[in-house]
Structures are given as C-alpha cells and as structure tokens.
Amino acid sequence: xxxxxxxxxxxxxxxxxxxxxxxxxxxxxxxxxxxxxxxxxxxxxxxxxxxxxxxxxxxxxxxxxxxxxxxxxxxxxxxxxxxxxxxxxxxxxxxxxxxxxxxxxxxxxxxxxxxxxxxxxxxxxxxxxxxxxxxxxxxxxxxxxxxxxxxxxxxxxxxxxxxxxxxxxxxxxxxxxxxxxxxxxxxxxxxxxxxxxxxxxxxxxxxxxxxxxxxxxxxxxxxxxxxxxxxxxxxxxxxxxxxxxxxxxxxxxxxxxxxxxxxxxxxxxxxxxxxxxxxxxxxxxxxxxxxxxxxxxxxxxxxxxxxxxxxxxxxxxxxxxx
Amino acid sequence: xxxxxxxxxxxxxxxxxxxxxxxxxxxxxxxxxxxxxxxxxxxxxxxxxxxxxxxxxxxxxxxxxxxxxxxxxxxxxxxxxxxxxxxxxxxxxxxxxxxxxxxxxxxxxxxxxxxxxxxxxxxxxxxxxxxxxxxxxxxxxxxxxxxxxxxxxxxxxxxxxxxxxxxxxxxxxxxxxxxxxxxxxxxxxxxxxxxxxxxxxxxxxxxxxxxxxxxxxxxxxxxxxxxxxxxxxxxxxxxxxxxxxxxxxxxxxxxxxxxxxxxxxxxxxxxxxxxxxxxxxxxxxxxxxxxxxxxxxxxxxxxxxxxxxxxxxxxxxxxxxxxxxxxxxxxxxxxxxxxxxxxxxxxxxxxxxxxxxxxxxxxxxxxxxxxxxxxxxxxxxxxxxxxxxxxxxxxxxxxxxxxxxxxxxxxxxxxxxx
Lengths: 322, 418
Prior knowledge:
The complex is a heterodimer of chains A (about 325) and B (about 425). Chain A has about 325 residues and is α/β, with parallel strands linked by helices. Chain A has 3 domains: about 10-155, P-loop containing nucleotide triphosphate hydrolases (Rossmann fold, 3-Layer(aba) Sandwich); about 160-225, Helicase, Ruva Protein, domain 3 (Orthogonal Bundle); about 230-320, Zinc Finger, Delta Prime, domain 3. Chain A contains 15 helices and 5 strands. Chain A starts with 5 loop residues before the first helix and ends with a helix. In chain B, the strands form 2 sheets. Chain B has a 5-stranded parallel β-sheet with strand order 2-3-4-1-5, sandwiched between helices. In chain B, strands 6-7 form a two-stranded parallel ribbon.
C-alpha cells in the first residue's frame, strides 16, 4: 500500500523504453553496442529527458547496479568548483572492474556554473579522461564555454511534441485506472510548456482530486501556486504596509521560503501583466529588487531587507496612485 | 543614615504612583492566604529606582509580614539557595506570615551561576510562602524559565512629577529650603530613578543648606542608564538630537542584532506616513548591511556607522517632529524566526530526499514538485499516506506538507502500515 511520485514511477529505465528523441536514442544505442562513449553535452529545455536518458544510457551500459559506476552532481546545488573537484577526484581514483573500461560523471545543469568554474571543469575532464566520461546537461548550450563544447559530442534535445506528452499522460492514466478527459490532458500540456516532469506532476495531483477534468487541472495549478507573493505586492502598492508584512511572514513560515526565493518570485511578478503598474515603475521596482537580492546573497537579514522593499513599494504606490 | 534608607516608605500609601502593581500584589497575597494562587511567585519588574524593593517592604510592613530577603545575585553558592529553600518551605509559625523576597534575579549570571535558575524554580515549586522576585529586565533569554512559573507584574518608570513629590516631602521633613527649579533639575536628570534623585538631593544639601539650581548642576550628573527595550525605543524615536538617538541604541542590555529586531518590528508602530516609514526602513537596512560587514571582516570600526543608521537614521526619517507615545510590544519576529527557520529546514530536507529519486536538482524539486505534493497532502490524505510510505517520509515532514490535514494523513499512514 505504498505509492511513488509518477515522475519517478513512469520514468523509462532503459533506452528502449524512451518514446521520443528518436535520433538521439539511436546514436546512443550504437555507443552502447561498441561499449565506448565520448564526453557528451545534452542540451535542451527542461523536462525533455536529458537526465532521464543519461541514466537510461548508464543502465544499459552497466546493468541494474549502474549507479555505482556513475557520479551524479548537480551544478545548481553544488556551486563550488572545489566540491566538484574533490568528488570527481575521489570517484575517478577507484578502478573499474567489468567489461566497460570507464565510469561516468553526470554533471547536471552545467550551464549554472560560472565560466571560471567551467575552465576548471575542462581541466578535470582532461585529467581523468582515461578512466571517466563526462555527460553534461544544460538548458542553454550557449552558456557552456567553447573549449568544453568542442570536447563533447553535442546532442540537441527538442521540446516534446504535444502528441508525445499527451500520449504519455494517457498511458499513465490507463495504467493507474484514472478517468480523464482528453481536453484536460491538452491543458496540462499547455501549462507545462512541454516539460514532461511538470506535466506528470500536475496529472498526479489532479488525479488525487478524482476524475481528471479541465476544472480539476486548473484547480490543482491554482492551489500549487498560490498568489501570496502577488497579493503581498498588491497590498504594499495599495499602501497597506502592515498587511503586506503579515503576508511576507506567512510566506516565510508556512511555505518555508527564504528571502532570496521570495525576491526572485517578486521579480517575476513585477513584469506580469496581472499586476497593474505603469512601466516606468516596473523598472524602478526591478532595480530595487536586484539591489535587495544582492544584499541578501551577501548575508543581510531577510525580513529587514524585504520590509525595506515593501516600505518603498507603499511609498511608490501612494505617489503614482495605482 | 543615608536618606535613601531613612525615607524608605513605611506604609503602602507612601509609595508613589504604582497603583496597578500595588493592587495586583495585594490581591495575589490575599489569594495566597486562601490557598488559591495560580502562580506561587511574582516577578516584579521595572526600571532601576522605580521602587520595586521599597514596594515589597512597604507591603510587608503594612500587612504585617515577616520579610525574608535575599539578593539573588549574591546567592551563587549552593548553601544560599538551600537557605532560601528552607525558609520557603516552612509554614507560617509563631513568627507569623512571611514573604520571600528575591532581589535582582536578573543579576544571575547564566554562565557563572549555571543551575541557579533551575534551583530557584525548584524552590518556587515547593514553597509554602509567597515568593516575590524583582528584575530590571525580565525578558533576558536565561530568565525565560522564571517567566513561565511566575506572574509578571510591571512597574512604571516614575514621572518627573512623582519624583518631585517625594523630594518635596523630604525637604519639608529635613527643614531644607529648595528652589523649585532645583528640584525640577534633579528630577529631570534622574529620568524616573527615585533612588538617584534622593542621592543627588542629599549631596546638594550637604554642600549648602540652601539648595539652588547651581548647586544641583554642580553635584548631579547625567547617569548612563540601562533602559528596557521599549523605553529605549520611546527615547530613540522621540529624540530631538542625534546624540540622544545614538545613546538610546546603546542604552539597553540587548545585542545590536536583538535591538534591530525591535526597531524592525516597530517602525510601522511609530510611523504612519509612508515616506517616513520607507526612509526609516532604508536606514535600518543600511545598519543591517554594516553589521553584516562587521561580522564578515571583523572590522569593528564600522560599528559606529551601524549605530548611526539604526538609531539616528531611523529616528530622523520623520518629516516633522512631534512627540508620540506608542506601545512598543515584544517583537513577534523573535518567535516567528525560529518557526521560519524550521520550515526552511523541512523544505530543504524534503528536496534532498526527492532530488536523488527524481534525478533532478533540489531547486527544481522545490519549485516544481513540492507545490503539487502539497496539493495532494491537503486534498487527499488517504492517497498522500501511500506516498508517505513510498518514500518513508518522517512525521515532521508530513506535518509540514499537510498543515491542518496532518492528523488525517498520519492516521491513514498508521492504517497502511498494518
């Protein structure tokens, strides 16, 4: 009587289960037959299967226990190149037994690394190329420095097509015996912008409410992304600082958001069409948001800095009369 | 005999302007007699020289209690605590009723007298006599256990008028001629500290049988006072000069970080005008930045900038000066901060668990997965319970995810395990 997140449960384990990115899969299968792979860069939008395919590749190469032959790093969680270096060094030192003469380092979201860190990474790739292969993933390949790109076989992942995503969702619904309307799956595709992981998350949450309908999909998305940040901005702009501050505390306590999380969301909201503001004000506010984010990253106090931000909004709102 | 002892109040009516505290104490003692007290001890708090000890003594005299007095800050040794315990545990005998007075409990040093607070709590639990404790600032962290077992009774800082009333009484009984301006000056400099006012009057009288404004100015000095946080805020926000605002910041026994928390809480209490509010917050946020830089670089030279921003910077954010009295309460943030930190840790822990299972970064789990998990946990507890079992999520994470539905989810988890 236990259940997993469907994003995990329905992840393809082997390349043969992957239904899209056909050309890429074909090329990778050839590598497996030869038991030899180059360094690789998987580039493409989120949720198109980069990481999943990297795991499937390793699975097909090493078998069920493939994870012991693979070092998984995520550049957005481990920003320090020193950490990456130590881990790679440690991992590359141990010899591989078996028929595959190398191990794999999977470095996810490599485009989150600074170019200095990438230079260091390049040296690591050269240093350990005898015993390891690197697979890098990136949303924006242009943010990967050229020397790395030139050392890698580059694979461009394309956005998933509507029929691929809807087909997969339909398959899951059948497996899970969930009643769903096709229109609802269409809407899930639109909301998730072709990101399979997000689409499956939405489907599972909607299914938890019962039948998957257009209404239940919208309801789930509304519940998952409360408009707390927007409401806080609107309260502040209306000059109600005290209420805005209460919302801020709510976000920090009930949602566990850090000051940086909140200011980033604010930044998105400032340019949203649903927040009615004159454009010149959006620019002023965005500039100040940037200043606040910088202070927070430097270690300033979340609440004091965000209060200063909200106080400024109250003042600006009063002057312009939004 | 020094005047401060000679003119101690002998009757409760001699105690000036503390009617609320008086009434509370009298009612509480009455409840003790009838065995109906809710808390067996009282923590009487207020600024220095407002008459805490005098009030207790006057009450004892008026209602015929034997006063068993003990200065808590001297009683470090075990034997002293035991002596208090013994006195407290005895029932009223031939010697009559007794009050145990523990003076200056905030003088207990949390490091040097480790265990002192615990020992006092033990005494309070077992006492058969009313215990009254006094403290200037009862909100210090190490006194928290005492705040829980004792009823807090506040005393006001005395006004200039109150101080003058008492000084006039003394002048009359000493047959002393005093210029009215002189008494006013003493009272002003005392800032409500009656003890220091009486000392100053005595010093001036010793110099000259006739107390004039000039003699007062010669003998009495402004003292460096420790203020309770709300008093310091009152002074700071209402200061007319930069130096006053700066002094107010350093006049409490809070750390700068703690005092910033008080200011952060109360900028909107004091300011209503958005322009003033924003200027005040901007100054405070600058102070916060300076303090951060000090921590990072250990460059303590920067401290004066931080103090100037948090004190004068905030106080002079006003567009026009007007004295405003405001109630500055204990900041909510102190409590909320701990909760927010916990919440952030839960989110981080959950992201850690799920990121490796879902082959993605913690950042993606936080933005794309946790929000939908929350929906499931708050909307369908039975289904959520299955996921709890699938990932072996610990109870505190379930509580965090499910909020008010936590009970439902957990009871399904229990059933599911069987």
